[in-house]
Amino acid sequence: AGFEKSLPVNVVDLVERNATIPDSPALSLPVWLAGAQAAGRQAPDWFTSPWFGSFHLTSSAWIYHAELGWLHAVNDDSGNAWLWQASQGWLWTGSGIYPWLYRHTDSEWIYFLKSSGGKVYYYRQATESVGEW
After folding, report:
1. How confident is the model at residue 47 (pLDDT cuts 50, 70, 90)?
2. Among 79, 101, 103, 77, which Cα is nearest to 89's?
3. For residues 114 and 129, what is the distance between their CA atoms, to the nearest angstrom?
4. 16/72: higher pLDDT
5. In this predicted structure, which of 6-15, 40-49, 91-100 has the lowest mean pLDDT?
6. What is the DSSP string of the chain?
7. Hey, which residues does 64 pair with through a beta bridge?
């Protein structure tokens, strides 16, 4: 036994509008991320910072960093930021410091190396070893 049915598919070629990406995004960038550029219409609310890399900005204090994952960001008075990350706790960094991160829980400086396979690798200055989170 078999069953056949015709399914019409219409393809419409739309002319792309000559729109530009607005200079000021709908979401305002925190002071410590000044200078980041919108990724474009294809990736709304994604930005690229010359020093911090690619991240997704939300309407709350949470950002999703392309390599570090979810971070809760709080500006400090110097234009740097405190970032809370679930496995690391509070981290402090800024444009003249990153990829160094100061980890508050053990007062240790860690250096972000790379992310691979869903894991983030960093160098621990105090023990001169590589760790992951």
Report:
1. very high
2. 103
3. 14
4. 72
5. 6-15
6. -------------PPPP-----SS-SSPPPGGGTT-EE--TTSTTEEEETTTEEEEE-SSSEEEETTTEEEEEEE-TTS-EEEEETTTEEEEE-TTTTTEEEEGGGTEEEEEEEEETTEEEEEETTTTEEEE-
7. 56, 70
Q: What is the pTM of this model?
A: 0.73
Q: How many residues does the chain have?
A: 133
Cα→Cα distances 11→8, 42, 119, Å: 10, 21, 42
**CA trace torsion 85, 91, 96, 100 (10° rounding):** -90
Nearest to residue 63, comparing CAs of 82, 40, 50?
A: 82
Q: Tell me: cis bond preceding 99? Omega within 30 of 0 counts.
A: yes
